[in-house]
Amino acid sequence: MISKLKLILSGLLTAIAFSFGWWVNGAIKNSEISSLKLEHSEYIRSVAEANAEVILKQKKANEDLMTRLSDLETKNYEDLKSCISCSGESSKGALDAKS
To answer: Distance (Å, rounded) from C-alpha 14 to C-alpha 17?
Structure first.
C-alpha cells in the first residue's frame, strides 16, 4: 500500500514539475517573442524613415529638374521668338531693297 502511495506521489510530483517547467519555458519564450517584436518594429521604423528620406530627395531632384526644364523652355522660346523677328526684318529689308 505504501509503495502504491509512493508511486502516486512520485507521479504527481513529476506532473507538477513537468507543468512548472512547461510554464517557465513558455514565459521565457514569450519574453523572447516580445523582444523580437520590438526589434522588428524598430527595424521597420528605420526602413520607413530611410524610404521617406529617399522619396523626399527624389521629389526635390524632380522639382529641380522641372525648374531647369521650365527655364530652358522659356529661354528657347525667347531665342526662337528673337530669331523669327530677326528673320522677318531681314526678309522685309530684302523686299524693300528690290522695290
So the answer is: 5
